């Protein structure tokens, strides 16, 4: 009997109008969509029609009013809804798709995060996930009482403890804590409630949390930091890692490296799913896909393209747009993504313009331009080559790119035996093929 092929896991990363930085200028994209619930509901239902494991909402806690380069303000796409609130509204309108929201360990406190996600997990009958981020922008810090963001090692030091507290709080109630026994008069059994009594360097949290264990035990933990510290946190605590991997060779190294870190925490490498971003641009033929890609390139607003780079490299207005990318500002410890972008520019000897043209669709994630078969070929090669367990689909244009992927690529993956034909289960954890989480009870 032939062995069953590995099954691709899929997430949809919903980012407003799409991952093309000027997506909202495209005639297929409704500009007001990002402020309308129906837009997100349609995207989520399309993902569910495509049997996706989850939809994923990135989040940054700032509405930037920095006008760099000058004149850019008001020209770029934004997200509008607070992710957990939005997912709570999507929960009763969907059945099987996982609902993952981003929440920052730098600006939040563990009790609130634990409680909100546990509630979403109850509301969705075991489909919630928390994307743990440490945040990195000064502009975000300014909304939380400080002018600059904590430096990276302090952020991760806090994040390590933060995640432990949240996991501890999620384990407050034993699965059978609610006895509802009218005879004895006990609604819940106090012996089945754990008080956390956490005292650490960053937090003192007594607990317990009153939210019962959900159908999947506790929310799925997603992690997106790629630095040394980020990978260590993920190896110890994450169920899913969302990464930026533009090339198979580096993806394989990242995949092996991350899974290799898990043994020292007593974890099985299969219990962490690595899902790099994937941005397909589809066409009936390769030539058509390339034409559509060029059309998208023509939509790029140069100011918006520069804005993305300026956020990383500082104001580039003084530098010739067709000249080389200047040395990075030295005042900040660089986020892993910024280093990746700089390496890309240096490796290809790109000018500032060439760099923003290449990052304006997909932020350096793996962009594949081709037919549905060609996109499926890449996905298959990455899965069989142990570069990924699945992918986070990054639609260039929403909702069009999501619909195209579901209608055109999903059937190819199914025919090849690489993707489910129906959901295996109702919970996110089970669909991802992850075991029930441990409990101290
Ligand atoms: C694929 C991916 C998605 C991310 N999404 C978010 C996000 O939605 N919000 C956020 O504040 N940070 C996000 N981050 C940032 C990281 O969580 C982390 O704070 C940042 O990358 C700096 O840490 P690092 O050097 O470990 O990557 C994301 C990072 C990656 C790689």
From TrEMBL:
<protein>
    <submittedName>
        <fullName>LLM class flavin-dependent oxidoreductase</fullName>
        <ecNumber>1.-.-.-</ecNumber>
    </submittedName>
</protein>
<dbReference type="Pfam" id="PF00296">
    <property type="entry name" value="Bac_luciferase"/>
</dbReference>
<dbReference type="InterPro" id="IPR051260">
    <property type="entry name" value="Diverse_substr_monoxygenases"/>
</dbReference>
<keyword id="KW-0560">Oxidoreductase</keyword>
<dbReference type="InterPro" id="IPR036661">
    <property type="entry name" value="Luciferase-like_sf"/>
</dbReference>
<feature type="domain" description="Luciferase-like">
    <location>
        <begin position="22"/>
        <end position="382"/>
    </location>
</feature>
<keyword id="KW-0503">Monooxygenase</keyword>
<comment type="similarity">
    <text>Belongs to the NtaA/SnaA/DszA monooxygenase family.</text>
</comment>
<dbReference type="GO" id="GO:0016491">
    <property type="term" value="F:oxidoreductase activity"/>
</dbReference>
<dbReference type="InterPro" id="IPR011251">
    <property type="entry name" value="Luciferase-like_dom"/>
</dbReference>
<dbReference type="InterPro" id="IPR016215">
    <property type="entry name" value="NTA_MOA"/>
</dbReference>
<keyword id="KW-0288">FMN</keyword>
<keyword id="KW-0285">Flavoprotein</keyword>
């Amino acid at each position: 009997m032939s062995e069953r092929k590995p099954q691709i896991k899929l997430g949809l990363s919903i980012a407003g109008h799409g991952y093309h930085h000027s997506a909202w200028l495209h005639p297929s994209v409704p500009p007001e969509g990002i402020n309308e619930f129906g837009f997100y509901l349609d995207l989520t239902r399309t993902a569910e029609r495509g049997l996706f494991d989850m939809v994923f909402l990135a989040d940054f806690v700032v509405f930037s009013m920095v006008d760099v380069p000058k004149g850019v303000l008001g020209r770029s796409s934004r997200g509008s809804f607070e992710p957990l609130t939005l997912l709570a509204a999507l929960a009763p309108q969907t059945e099987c798709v996982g609902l993952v929201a981003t929440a920052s360990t730098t600006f939040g406190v563990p009790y609130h995060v634990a409680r909100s996600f546990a509630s979403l997990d109850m509301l969705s009958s075991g489909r919630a996930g928390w994307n743990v981020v440490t945040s990195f922008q000064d502009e975000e810090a300014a909304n939380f009482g400080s002018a600059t963001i904590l430096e990276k090692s302090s952020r991760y030091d806090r994040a390590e403890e933060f995640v432990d507290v949240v996991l501890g709080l999620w384990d407050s109630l034993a699965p059978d804590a609610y006895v509802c026994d009218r005879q004895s008069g006990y609604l819940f059994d106090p012996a089945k409630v754990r008080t956390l009594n956490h005292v650490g360097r960053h937090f003192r949290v007594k607990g317990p949390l009153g939210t019962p264990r959900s159908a999947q035990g506790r929310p799925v933990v997603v992690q997106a930091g790629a630095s040394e510290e980020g990978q260590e946190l993920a190896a110890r605590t994450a169920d899913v890692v969302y990464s930026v991997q533009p090339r198979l060779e580096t993806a394989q190294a990242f995949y092996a490296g991350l899974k290799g870190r898990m043994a020292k925490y007593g974890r099985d490498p299969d219990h962490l799913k690595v899902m790099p971003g994937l941005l397909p641009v589809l066409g009936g033929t390769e030539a058509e896909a390339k034409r559509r890609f060029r059309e998208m390139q023509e939509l790029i607003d140069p100011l918006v393209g520069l804005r993305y780079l300026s956020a990383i490299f500082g104001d580039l207005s003084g530098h010739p747009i067709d000249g080389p990318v200047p040395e990075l500002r030295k005042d900040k410890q660089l986020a892993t993504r910024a280093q990746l972008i700089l390496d890309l520019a240096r490796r290809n000897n790109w000018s500032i313009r060439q760099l923003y043209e290449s990052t304006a669709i997909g932020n350096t994630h793996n962009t594949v331009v081709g037919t549905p078969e060609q996109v499926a070929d890449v996905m298959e090669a990455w899965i069989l080559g142990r570069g990924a367990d699945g992918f986070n689909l990054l639609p260039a244009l929403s909702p069009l790119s999501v619909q195209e992927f579901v209608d055109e690529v999903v059937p190819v993956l199914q025919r090849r035996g690489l993707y489910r034909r129906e959901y295996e289960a109702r919970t996110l954890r089970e669909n991802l093929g992850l075991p029930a989480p441990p409990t101290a009870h």
